[in-house]
Write a structure and sequence with these properties.
There is one protein chain. This protein has 298 residues and is α/β, with parallel strands linked by helices. It has helices at 18-32, 37-42, 64-74, 103-133, 152-161, 188-201, 214-221, 236-246, 265-269, 280-283, and strands at 48-55, 59-60, 79-82, 89-90, 97-102, 140-142, 174-177, 206-211, 228-232, 253-257, 275-277, 290-297. The strands form three sheets. It has a six-stranded parallel beta sheet.
Length: 298
């Protein structure tokens, strides 16, 4: 198992973690190659510039400190002032940050910095819309593992910035038993044995079981050590009945997933499920449009 590196999700974060710095290096190497030929040949070497990063549309910010780190990685002498932080709602034209210094350096960092903040702000903005759609219920919004390879901690931080919550971070922090895992006969006794063994050997790991129908829900409710039951592609009526089957118990929690959209989310949340998970928050989100407005000192 690889080393787990945490990403600071706080808005007061003043630096990004080592793994994000490595991701920035890879992105810059991909873009620069053996040199920014446009700036080298068309921008005077000593030219100084000032640029303001502004959103072109309304949304929620995420990746502000990552964008700042990109500018600093290209040229540590650049002066960067951050005005708005991760998790803040913005309107078109708002000043997110100011970058001042070598025009060549700012231009070289521009696209990579924008790629990070646009993508992550898109995740935060989409999450915010879904959170608002179910805000009238106690149901909480979750992301999934359907993330961009290498970007998982950043994208999950963006979900938090948008007001959502994180599902498991990887294969190691929650057992999620789907139909593809039940390659035996699915015997309840065998399933209980597996849960007991996991809880004994890894007591901090939660267990979630996927149910496709109410008969499976009934069987899973009879097991001990189950923390979550995922209601996969169920109708609102079946989800409501599943919640009723739990009775006065707090756990296992119910998570609705599969086939849900921004339009159907409110009705599903009203069934009484505790959580709803959406892969679209990270796997098919449109980026938030941001750009740099330049002024030049000649």
């Amino acid at each position: 198992m690889g080393r787990r590196v945490e990403y600071d999700r706080g808005m007061s974060n003043t630096k990004v973690s080592d793994n994000v710095q490595e991701l920035i290096k890879l992105a810059l190497a991909e873009d620069f190659g053996d040199g920014d030929v446009t700036s080298l040949y068309f921008v005077p070497e000593g030219l100084q510039a000032r640029a303001l990063m502004r959103p072109r549309s309304r949304g929620v910010l995420s990746g502000v400190r990552v964008a700042e780190a990109v500018f600093k990685a290209v040229d540590p002498t650049l002066r960067v002032e951050v005005y708005l932080g991760d998790g803040e709602e913005v309107l078109p034209g708002a000043a997110v940050m100011m970058i001042e210094g070598s025009a060549r350096s700012i231009l070289g960092a521009e696209r990579t910095a924008l790629n990070f903040i646009q993508r992550l702000s898109g995740v935060a903005s989409m999450t915010h819309r879904y959170v608002q759609a179910i805000a009238h219920t106690p149901c909480k919004l979750l992301d999934t593992r359907k993330t961009t390879p290498g970007y998982r901690l950043l994208e999950k931080a963006a979900v938090k910035h948008g007001g959502g919550n994180n599902h498991r971070l990887g294969l190691y922090d929650r057992a999620m038993v789907k139909d593809n895992h039940l390659m035996t006969d699915g015997d309840i006794g065998h399933l209980q044995h597996c849960i007991d063994k996991l809880k004994q050997e890894r007591p901090g790991v939660e267990v979630e079981l996927e149910a496709d129908n109410l008969k499976q829900v009934e069987g899973f409710l009879g097991l001990s050590g189950v923390d979550y039951i995922l209601l996969d592609n169920m109708s609102c009526e079946d989800m409501r009945r599943a919640v009723e089957m739990r009775g006065n118990r707090t756990k296992p929690y119910f998570e609705a997933s599969g086939g849900l959209t921004l339009e159907t989310a409110p009705a599903a949340a009203e069934t009484g499920v505790d959580f709803m998970s959406f892969g679209c928050l990270t796997h098919s989100v449109p980026s938030l449009d941001l750009g740099l407005d330049f002024t030049v000192d000649r």
